[in-house]
Write a structure and sequence with these properties.
The protein contains three helices and ten strands. By secondary structure, the chain is low in regular secondary structure. The N and C termini lie far apart (67 Å).
């Protein structure tokens, strides 16, 4: 309706009758100068789609969505993508139980610092690619409750979240996941990632998965099976040379070759494990706590094998 009104600064639509509308797709898309928008009287009871609704509304600093009923919505594709001036977004009340796509949902919301999505129901969602891509000021993200059992794509999901220091996705179910390329690329502030829950043989692409995450000191992928992965180009490029990688060599032969490209040398320490352990004193607690006997660790360009 107002798509492409790039010079529009304010809009008063308090008297709009929206009770019979089924789609809000593109309604305010590309309203790049819009600063004031009051939607407090919007009736969205029959809305089934809100794709691109605020796409590239890059001048909006806040949006009052308290009146929004999202219980019938099935698609939120690029709903807030490009809202680069948004400093807060209160959507905890959103009912997302029927939503199937959240791709690009918050893409380039570069001014948001905190996002708590613990109330989001994602049980039907199959696409989360670029969901938080380029959220460069995001410091805290709560996605602990996400049900990802149907998600097939997480490409670029957290890419460019350069301020995010921690990320708890240990409960993510990746049993149907196929695309994970660039998923954590350029996450400059992340120091560790526990992906021990990545138990799947369906993943076929992990290109640049951890690329350019230059402070990522520890990755646990000990349950990742790479037998069906067809593309895994430069998954560790730009990561620290002293990064610790916990993996299962028997299930991750292809990944092991990527690790070896970083100059890793396998050392058998079956007789002098205690001596070798002194060399990795800084990571000893991580290894012992998170890895079982027989797993390998990459540290200071060498791989140490913990002995039974």
């Amino acid at each position: 309706m107002f798509e492409g009104c790039s010079s529009l600064i304010s809009l008063n639509i308090l008297n709009f009758e929206t009770s019979k509308i089924k789609s809000l797709d593109n309604m305010f898309s590309e309203c790049s100068s819009l600063k004031i928008l009051n939607l407090s009287n919007f009736n969205t009871d029959n809305i089934v789609s809100m794709d691109y609704i605020f796409n590239n509304c890059k001048s909006l600093t806040s949006i009052d969505l308290s009146s929004f009923n999202t219980s019938n919505i099935t698609s939120m594709y690029k709903a807030f993508s490009g809202c680069s001036s948004l400093t807060s977004l209160e959507i905890n009340h959103f009912d997302t139980s029927l939503v199937t796509t959240m791709a690009y949902l918050f893409n380039n919301c570069s001014s948001l610092k905190i996002m708590d999505l613990n109330n989001f129901n994602t049980s039907l969602v199959n696409d989360m690619k670029y969901m938080f891509n380029r959220n460069s000021n995001l410091e805290h993200l709560n996605v602990k409750s996400f049900d990802t059992s149907k998600v097939k794509s997480m490409e670029y999901m957290f890419s460019g979240c350069i301020s995010l220091k921690t990320l708890d996705i240990i409960k993510f179910n990746v049993s149907t996941l196929k695309k994970a390329g660039h998923m954590f690329e350029n996450c400059l502030s992340l120091t560790s990632l526990n992906l021990s829950n990545f138990v799947s043989d369906s993943i076929d692409n992990i290109d640049y998965m951890f690329s350019k995450s230059e402070n990522l000191a520890y990755i646990n992928i000990k349950n990742l099976i790479d037998s069906n992965i067809k593309s895994m180009f430069n998954i560790f490029s730009g990561t620290p040379e002293n990064m610790v990688i916990c993996y299962n060599a028997s299930n991750a032969k292809k990944i092991e070759r990527q690790i070896n490209k970083k100059g890793c040398t396998i050392v058998n320490c079956s007789e002098n494990w205690m001596g070798s352990r002194k060399k990795v004193r800084a990571i000893d607690n991580i290894c012992v706590e998170n890895c079982d006997a027989g797993y390998k660790y990459l540290y200071d360009s060498k791989c140490y094998k913990r002995c039974p």
